[in-house]
Specification:
Number of helices of chain B: 13
Helix content of chain A: over 70%
Number of domains of chain B: 2
Order of helices and strands of chain B: HEHEHEHEEHEHEHEHEHEHHHHEEEE
Number of helices of chain A: 11
Strand content of chain B: 15-25%
Structural class of chain A: mainly alpha
Radius of gyration of chain B: 24 Å
CATH architecture of the largest domain in chain B: 3-Layer(aba) Sandwich
Strand order of the largest sheet of chain B: 7-6-8-9-10-13-14
Oligomer: heterotrimer
Number of strands of chain A: 2
Number of strands of chain B: 14
Distance between the termini of chain B: 89 Å
């Protein structure tokens, strides 16, 4: 029984991390119908920002997530302005996806070139290595803290989208761009904001990760792929859907990893995605 | 008028002299083929730097370096070694086409590479077809020297000999601590290297009378290793053998700590364990792990005193000391150069015969000697089983090299 | 440009390509020979993808699965069963077509990005399964023994001329198939489905059957390319052939050249492959990853400026300028 609880807890904690990475993506997809292929690499950039702050000036990840979040907000805005804005609305539906694929390649190799392929980890962070033991179940404190932040991010997103005028404007733009413009909403600013917020979500997650994960240029790839699957599974545009889908994916990964075999972890994740999507083609909660 | 003509004439003569001068320039091009980008780019860069260091040592006579070398700088009466570097990106198809390019476009005489065994296979096949020499310093898959190639030489011990050494060591531990190690678990990255190493390890342990109770492959670059470590914990083997490269090693150690997995002994194949930077990053968490090293600064200080000045040059390029893998690549260039010089010819068949029929003095190799069998394997390749304690690799086995007693069993994470 | 001129230009291009190995030093054993073989191979791969992605409008990122099945077909024929790689290639292609139909039938219900993500998921599943499947060699892959030179074993040790003509044959096959598609009803049905599936169905086109046929054909041809790839590299393992990166190659080359156009795949390959190979060979000394940085920037630039790819660029240039 303890093992079952341990595996379940690990799955939930992993799922929360995936959730906050996927949060930004679901906004981008829902509002602008854009898949940001570089999303996983945004996470990698955020981790590097947090790592260098920690390495050079001993700023703990518990603090540097603010800087990562802000930096990624800017990166999201710049990505939108320079790349995505020129790709959407055109004839090719894949233009934005492929352009962000190019961006992903660019970011990965810039990191490789500037920071070397070294796996970099921070030593002596506040949370490193701490754990709680409840019953027989071991909880990693850094992962727990990341999950709490993730919940907070989701709470903030939900609040923004549901309770503020800007949030309603975002939802309106997602539903019908032209009608929103007729209503006086500047959809261009909405798009900028959405990319910025999406980047910031990933930035916060990435800022906290150096507490327990090593950063290297290729680390964003799998996270990005899982984020796509989560967003599609939850149904694009649905914040709640993303959270639930992420938890589901985290649990599937953990249970498949332990009860079937660790090497089938991700096979199970992608297989579950395919099964669900066949039954509900628009995802669990999609519009 | 006259001065203008004399200037022109002297320029023309100077040009002619320079032209004949460059025609006299004696150069042997050697290609280096390593993964300079991709997940193991760090190891690739270090291997390349090691070969560059050795080329520098051979071409110029640096003061303080005590390797047996020809009297004049260079080899074969003034030939200099010029390196042509290429990147495999860790991909076998790229390795193959780069090998072809190095031989055919760049005119390389030989290639030293490729770190990844999966890349070394096609690249060395190209060399064999072109009748050129291929030297593998640290590619460890035993399959490489089972192909019957005549131009291929490999310097490091194979996964098979390493596994056999691990099994022997466990048996030795069982003599000092009776009945300590009966069951073994294997965890490895699901790649050509990992699968091969794990197979060899399992077979060697079985042959030594132990039972393999856990066999856990993991996807390299995974987001977490929780399921893998939990699976091992559930099976509770006495000893664990791990094959993790680079950064996965860090994740492996930290996950073990978090989950409280502490088998009696944790033995590691190359790379992650013996990487000096990773050891520093792990700090105290890396203590008490076991692994095999063909080189470490501690081993060198005792048994390979001539390494230090060469290492100083290497450190200028990379900022770190040699490690087991990179030093083999330097040795590879050294042996190639010595073989060419000894054969007094660049004829490939003669040089290959010389390499195979000579017992080489190699101050940069543990044991000091290198000799190849008919398959191209260095039969004198030696490794020492070490234990990492406070950033020092303490030698444990074979007994002749032991400098301290092993800390056994592996102390629990709470008890440090 | 009328049909007659287009046809004449196409045959001229084919003649030039067929005659290239006669230029001394170009193909033989040179690096340029390697680049030319890859150009023809990737052009064939991209054109195979184009059938489904360009003409039929179903953007699939899963083609490396079929490429890989074809590669393993040939690989297992040579390494495991010691029979001719031609048989293995055909068997692999047939298997790929079958797998493609089985896998895509449920997926075709999905629209837009959902379909694309589903194809990602399929590649990842196959990649990871092949990595643990011992029958096909798992992570160790299959390594070729030294084969005798010649067409029977489809392997040449030193000269690239044999490979060049093999790739050229493949190129001819795939491009002829697409040429046929362009002129016959099947092609019109595909394009109808691309432009508007519901509309096409209302006019009596069985969209699902058309899509499945396009998928099967596309997969079959992609698998043949995979078989060539393994014969060329003498080794196959899952990361070489079944990866997401390989899938992206299929898509990128076609889109860069001009998706849904006849010459797009060839133009895309002719630009991208030399760029990829030469920047890696000659720029990688500048530091890690510089060639890929250049590559990434190029992709961004093209997608931002001219999503129609090279064909789009040509079209824009050929359009008569407005009178100011």
């Amino acid at each position: 029984m303890t093992m079952f609880l341990q595996v379940a807890l690990d799955g939930i904690l992993a799922g929360m991390l995936y959730a906050v990475v996927a949060a930004g993506l679901t906004l981008m997809w829902g509002v602008m119908d854009v898949i940001n292929f570089a999303h996983g690499d945004f996470l990698m950039v955020a981790m590097y920002v947090s790592y260098w702050l920690g390495f050079l000036w001993r700023v703990d990840p518990l603090v540097s997530w603010v800087a990562s979040g802000a930096f990624l907000f800017l990166l999201g805005v710049v990505t939108y302005k320079l790349i995505v804005s020129r790709c959407i609305g055109g004839k090719s539906p894949m233009a934005a996806l492929l352009a962000t694929f190019g961006l992903s390649m660019l970011l990965k190799n810039l990191a490789l070139n500037r920071f070397s392929p070294n796996f970099l980890i921070l030593t002596h962070t506040l949370l490193e290595g701490r754990k709680l033991t409840l019953g027989g179940v071991i909880v990693s404190v850094p992962q727990l803290v990341t999950s709490l932040f993730s919940l907070a991010v989701f709470g903030a997103l939900y609040f923004i989208l549901e309770k503020t005028r800007t949030g309603w404007a975002i939802q309106a733009t997602a539903m019908d761009r032209e009608a929103s413009e007729l209503m006086g909403i500047s959809t261009e600013w909405i798009y900028v904001l959405v990319f910025g917020i999406g980047g910031a979500c990933v930035g916060v997650a990435g800022g906290l990760l150096p507490s327990y994960l090593a950063v290297h240029p290729n680390m964003g790839t799998l996270f990005g792929l899982i984020a796509f699957v989560i967003v599609a599974l939850g149904g694009f545009g649905s914040i709640l859907g993303t959270l639930l889908a992420a938890l589901l994916i985290g649990l599937v990964e953990a249970f498949a990893g332990f009860y079937i075999a660790p090497v089938f972890k991700y096979v199970a994740v992608f297989a579950v995605y395919l099964v669900v999507i066949m039954v509900r083609p628009k995802g669990l909660f999609g519009w | 008028m006259r001065s203008k003509w004399s200037v022109l004439l002297s320029v023309a003569m100077g040009g002619a002299l320079a032209a004949t001068g460059s025609a006299q320039e004696k150069v042997i091009k050697v290609g280096t083929l390593f993964p300079l980008t991709g997940p193991v780019a760090l190891a690739g860069e270090r291997c390349k730097a090691a070969v560059e260091t050795m080329a520098e040592v051979i071409n110029t006579r640096q003061p303080g370096i005590n390797l047996p070398l020809p009297k004049q700088p260079g080899i074969l009466d003034g030939y200099k070694i010029v390196l042509v570097n290429a990147d495999t990106q860790g991909k076998p198809d790229v390795a193959k086409s780069e090998a072809e390019r190095l031989f055919n476009q760049e005119g390389c005489y030989a290639i030293i590479g490729c770190y990844n065994s999966s890349c070394t296979k096609p690249a060395s096949a190209v060399a064999e077809r072109e009748n050129k020499i291929f030297l593998a310093g640290c590619a460890s898959s035993s399959a490489l020297t089972e192909r019957g190639l005549k131009n291929f030489f490999r310097f490091c011990p194979t996964d098979r000999t390493e596994s056999q050494q691990y099994a022997e060591y466990f048996k030795a531990l069982n003599q000092d601590f009776p009945g300590a190690i009966k069951t073994v678990g294997v965890i490895y990255e699901n790649s050509e290297f990992g699968v091969h190493a794990a197979n060899e390890a399992s077979q060697a342990c079985k042959a030594a009378g132990m039972t393999v109770v856990a066999d856990v492959p993991f996807n390299s670059g995974a987001t977490n290793l929780n399921s893998e470590v939990q699976t091992i914990k559930a099976k509770n083997p006495d000893a664990v053998i791990a094959a993790c490269l680079g950064g996965d090693y860090t994740l492996w150690v930290r996950t073990m700590k978090m989950m409280g997995l502490a088998p009696k002994a944790v033995m590691n194949f190359c790379s992650g364990y013996q990487d000096p930077i990773i050891a520093k990053q792990l700090a105290a968490d890396g203590n008490f792990f076991l692994g095999s090293s063909g080189y470490s600064p501690e081993i060198a200080a005792k048994y390979m005193k001539d390494v230090a000045p060469v290492e100083a040059l290497y450190r200028k390029k990379t900022g770190v000391e040699f490690d087991s893998d990179s030093i083999q690549e330097a040795v590879a260039l050294y042996v190639l150069a010595m073989a060419i010089d000894k054969s007094k010819t660049l004829d490939v068949n003669k040089v290959v015969t010389t390499i195979r029929n000579t017992v080489w003095d190699s101050p940069l190799s543990l044991g000091g000697k290198i000799a190849f069998d008919a398959n191209g394997q260095n039969t004198r390749a030696t490794e020492i089983i070490t234990q990492l304690k406070n950033l020092n690799y303490v030698s444990l086995y074979p007994k002749s090299y032991a400098e301290a007693k092993v800390t056994f069993p592996f102390p629990g994470w709470d008890k440090r | 440009m009328n049909e007659l001129r287009k046809g004449w230009m196409w045959y001229c291009l084919l003649a030039v390509l067929a005659a290239l190995p006669l230029c001394p030093g170009l193909v033989g054993n040179a690096f340029s020979g390697h680049v030319l073989v890859l150009v023809l191979l990737y052009a064939s791969m991209a054109q195979a993808w184009n059938i489904l992605g360009g003409y039929c409008g179903q953007v699939s990122f899963g083609h490396s699965v079929f490429f890989g099945i074809g590669a393993y077909g040939a690989g297992m024929a040579v390494v495991t069963w010691h029979i001719s790689p031609w048989l293995g290639a055909l068997a692999g292609a047939g298997a790929a077509a079958a797998v493609s139909v089985v896998v895509s039938y449920p997926c075709f219900r999905l629209k837009g990005h959902y379909f694309a993500i589903a194809t990602f998921a399929i590649v990842e599943i196959f990649h990871r399964l092949f990595m643990v499947w011992d029958w096909v060699g798992g992570a160790l892959g299959l390594d070729y023994p030294m084969l005798p030179d010649g067409w029977a074993s489809f392997s040449w040790a030193k000269s690239k001329v044999g490979y060049y003509y093999g790739a050229f044959g493949l190129f001819l096959l795939v491009f002829s198939v697409v040429r046929w598609i362009e002129r016959h009803r099947f092609g019109y049905y595909l394009r109808a489905v691309r432009e508007g599936q519901e509309t096409a169905e209302s006019l009596g086109v069985d969209a699902t059957r058309m899509k499945l046929r396009a998928m099967a054909l596309s997969a079959f041809l992609a698998a043949l390319c995979g078989a060539f790839f393994v014969q060329y590299n003498f080794r196959v393992d899952p990361p070489m052939v079944m990866s997401l990166d390989m899938s992206m190659s299929f898509v990128l080359i076609t889109v860069l050249g001009g998706v849904g156009t006849f010459l797009g795949p060839l133009l895309g390959a002719a630009v991208l492959i030399p760029l990829q190979e030469y920047t890696r060979a000659y720029l990688s000394h500048l530091g890690a990853g510089v060639d890929l940085i250049v590559f990434g920037l190029l992709i961004i630039l093209v997608m931002v400026k001219q999503p129609g790819g090279i064909m789009g660029l040509i079209g824009a240039l050929a359009r008569p300028r407005e009178v100011k």
